[in-house]
Amino acid sequence: MPATCLRRPASARARLRSTRSTVEREVMDKYASWRPPRSVRNSSVTSSGSPPHPPGPHPVATARAGSTILDMGPAGPLHDHAVLLAQLRAHLDALTRTQQQAHSPEVTDRIYRFWHQSCKVFRLQAHTSRIAGVLRDAGGGRPLNPWFEQLVAAGTGHVFHLQDNDRWYETASPVVHSFLHVRHLLDVTVEAATTIEEPTPVLPAGWATVLCLYQLR
């Protein structure tokens, strides 16, 4: 029997949305005036890759939505998010330059080469490696999500051989898949660094993806 996706009754879905909205609204109303400490917002990244630790105690908000706990204190997730955001902004020039290269006509041609069954598609690997290096640098040395490293490894290091034409999809598709996924991570990282003024308990999907990349979510 094929697997099916069970849906909650409409009344149950409505109650879940209402509960989730109430939790988010309570957190945002209670801590609407909270801002990351000035030492995090305005400091430059130190040689160790982290801004100075903010002084003094700060309120801690705890909101449960499923198993989620939102901690707004200096040692909690939002402080870590603010530190990461400062690091990304410090590397914004390199991130945006790499993003422009990743969306160039040359890259569009390389993706086309997969569908044309041309070995030129393998030149995408250089772009994948370049993006991965910039994202690693932008994190200030923090380890990246292991899935990211697996994606990069799966889509780089390939050398074309004539016999690859007999197994084209199996050989070439990991190169394209890896590049497209890594480029998306670069795009949401640049978007977060340029549009998010300060971290909040409610996470936009792009920013949440960046936090997963840097293992902060």
What does this structure look like?
By secondary structure, this protein is mainly alpha-helical. The protein has one domain. It is 56% helix and 0% strand. The chain is built from 9 helices and no strands. The longest helix has 28 residues, at 168-195.
Brief account:
The protein is mostly helical.
Radius of gyration: 21 Å
Major sheet = none
Q: What integer is the average pLDDT?
A: 78
Helix content: 55-70%
Fraction in beta strands: under 5%
- The oligomeric state of the chains shown is single chain
Overall, the morphology is elongated
Q: Helical stretch count?
A: 9
Series of secondary-structure elements, N-terminal to C-terminal:
HHHHHHHHH
Total domain count: 1
| First-last Cα distance | 36 Å
Number of strands: 0
Q: Class by helix and strand content?
A: mainly alpha
Q: Ranges with pLDDT <50 over ≥5 residues? A: 40-74
Quickly list its features:
mainly alpha
Strand and helix layout:
Blueprint: H1 10-30, H2 38-41, H3 77-90, H4 92-102, H5 105-115, H6 124-138, H7 146-154, H8 168-195, H9 205-213
Helix pairs in contact: 3-8, 4-6, 4-8, 6-8, 7-8, 8-9
